Amino acid sequence: MRGIIGKKVGMTQIFDDSGKVIPVTVVDAGPVVVTQVKTKANDGYEAVQVGFGQRKEKHTTKPLQGHFAKAGVTPRYTLAEFDGIRGFDYKTGQQFGANLFHEGEWVDVSGLSKGRGFAGVIKRHGFQRQNVTHGQSEYLRHPGSIGQSSDPSRVWKGMRMAGHKGDEKVTVKNLKVVKVNEDTNQLFLRGAVPGAKNGIIIITK
User: Fold this and answer.
1) Would 127 disulfide with which of 55, 121, 158, 167, CB 3.0-4.6 Å?
2) Model confidence band, residue 129 (pLDDT cutoffs 50, 70, 90)
3) What is the DSSP string of 114-126?
4) Pick the residue with more confidence: 30 or 126?
C-alpha cells in the first residue's frame, strides 16, 4: 500500500551515528487490517480500504457492523483508503504495519490540527498591534478597518477576521523516516506532525 493509518504518540529526540540530535515524532503505524478491496468493475476505481484501532460493537452503527462482518474482522475505530501496489494480491483480513516503510524514506502526514477555539486576528492571522499612543485606549488588538464606505459599501469576501482557529485538516509534506521499529510498529519521523497526542494521522508515501 501507499500509506497507513497511525496514531501520534508524542515527540522526543534521538541521536544518529555521529552523535547529532534529531527531533522526532513517534507514531504508532498500524497495525491496520484490510476491510475492503475496491475494484474498477464494482466501485469504479481501485483502492484498498483499511481499518485501524478497536471499537466496541455497541458503539458501531448497524451498516458498519455489517461491513466489518462481511470482511470477517472486528469493528475498527477509523477507516481510510490508499492506492495499492500494482500486482500485489490484496485480500480482506490481511494486516500491515510499520514494515511498509523503511529508513530514509520521505512521507506526507495529514491530521487534524489542535483546536484553539475563537481567536482574534493577531493570534489567528498574525496581524500587528495598533499604536499604543495618540489616545488609543481599547483597540490595541482590534483588526482596524475592514471595508470602504461609499464604494463598494460592503465587506469583501475572504476578509481576514477573528474566528475559529485550528481543528482542521493539515498536511505536512516531506518528513523523513528516521527509524522503523517493526517489533512495536512505530515510526520515528523527523520534525513535527499535526494534531495532539493520541490523534489519528494518515501517513502516505
Assistant:
1) 121
2) very high
3) PP-EEE-HHHHH-
4) 126
Question: Which 8-state DSSP code applies to residue 198?
Answer: T
- What residue ranges do the domains of the chain occupy? 1-30+104-115+166-205, 32-96, 119-143
Report the CATH architecture of 1-30+104-115+166-205. Beta Barrel (2.40)
Hey, what's the torsion of the CAs at 101, 106, 107, 113, to 10 degrees? 130
* Contact (Cβ atoms closer than 8 angstroms) between residue 186 and residue 18: no
Cell numbers that stand for 37 in this block: 478491496
Tell me if 1-30+104-115+166-205 shares its fold with 32-96. Answer: no
Instruction: Please state, for a pLDDT cut of 90, what percent of the chain lies above it.
Output: 72
- Domain 32-96 of CATH type 3.40.50.2300: no
The three cell numbers of residue 15 are 541521536
